[in-house]
Amino acid sequence: MTIDVNAAFDSGNIELVAIDGDRVDLNIRRDAGSDFYQWFHFRVSGAKGRTLTFRLLNAGGAAYAFGWPGYRPRVSGDRAHWAMVGASTYNDGVLTFSHAIEQDVVWFAYFAPYSMERHQDLIARIAGAEGVSHRTLGHSLDGQAIDCFDLGTGTKQVWIYARQHPGESMAEWFMEGALEALTDADDPVAVTLREKATIHLVPNMNPDGSRRGHLRTNAAGVNLNREWHSPSAERSPEVLCVRDAMDATGVDWAIDVHGDEAIPANFLAGYEGIPSWTDAHGERFYDYQRRLAEATPLFQTEQGYDKAPAGRANLAMSTNQLAERFGAVSMTLEMPFKDHDPSPDPVEGWSPDRSKALARACLKVLADVI
Q1: Rounded Cα–Cα distance for residues 360 and 187 (Å)
Q2: What tens digit of pLDDT does each residue of 4-63 get?
Q3: Which residue in 3, 6, 339, 350 is deepest, having the highest Cβ count within 10 Å?
Q4: Between the CA of residue 56 and those of 40, 41, 347, what are the distances in Å?
Q5: Active-site positions, per UniProt (predicted)?
Q6: 258 and 123 within one domain
Q7: Which range of residues forms the domain containing residue 227?
Q8: Residue 335: strand pairing partners
Q9: Per the structure, how many domains does the chain have?
Q10: Catalytic site positions
C-alpha cells in the first residue's frame, strides 16, 4: 500500500517533503502571516505493520526550538487516547522519532489535540447545565464565536480564559475540567465557589488559530497575548470583546491558561513589575501559589519564568494588564508539552486527564482563598 500523510482537517498542520522507504520527511507549516510554528497534527495511513521514522526537517527554526530536547510527540490510533512515542532525538535542527504502525490509520500531534468540533460539543453540553448562562462575546476574524459561560452569584468577579495561543491545547483540556467541576451539583468546591463568586469562563480565545493548526497566532498572524493594552477590531477582535466584557464586570481574580514548550513542570507566572505593584497585592498571588503546591503533586514552585524587574512588566500581556487595570490577583498558568517531571507519567506524559485534574485543584484552592 502507498503511505499517505494528511493534515487537511480541523487543527491539522504538516507539509510532506518526501517519503523514502520507511523514512518520512516533513516540515511544520508556519502560522498564517507569521514566522511562528511548532504545532503539528497529521495522520498516516497505508503503513500498518511497518515501523516508520519521521523527520521534522525545519524543527530548528521553530518558535521554541530549545524545547525539543527531552520532548516526545503524541500518537493515537483512535483520537481519544494519546500516548508519547517511545523516544525522539533532536540533532542539527531536525526532530526525529520512530513508531511501529499497528492500525490502518494513526494520528500524530505535538500534544493531544482539542478540536473545534470538540469545542462545539463542550459548548452544547455546558450550556445545558443548571445555573449556567452562555453568551457570545464577539467573533473572531474568521467569524467564529468567542464563547463565554457565566455562573455563580457571589460578588467576587473571577475570569478564567484559555488558548490565546491555539497550539497550547492542554489549556482547553484544563477548561473542560474546570467547567465539568463547576457544573457538578455534588461538588462542594463548586457550591462554595458559586456562592462566593461570579465566574466567567472563556474556553477558547483563539478559535481561528485552533482550527487552522496555528501555534501562537490568530487568522491575521497576531499574538493575542501581546494585544491587551490596545486591542482592535482589525487585528485582535478576540481580545477586544473579552476585555470589553471584563470592563463591564470588573475583575478580582484572573487565570490565563497556557502551555510551555521547554519547562517540564506546571507553574504560575504573576504580575511582578506592574507600575502599581505592592508587596501586599503580590502576596495574595504568592499565597495562592504556595497553597496550590501544597494541595496537589501536579504543581510545583521551583521551576518557572524569571520575574519582571520593578516597573518593567509588559502591559500588553493579559496577566499584567488585568492586575494593573483592575487590581486583580492575576496569573498565568503554564502546563508542559513534555511531562510534569515532579510527578511523571512514562506512558502519556502530561495529558488531557491530568490537565483536567489540575483544573479541579486550582478551583479548590481558589475557593479556599477567595
Answers
A1: 10
A2: 999 999 999 999 999 999 999 999 999 999 999 999 999 999 999 999 999 999 999 999
A3: 350
A4: 10, 12, 22
A5: 334
A6: yes
A7: 116-369
A8: 259
A9: 2
A10: 334
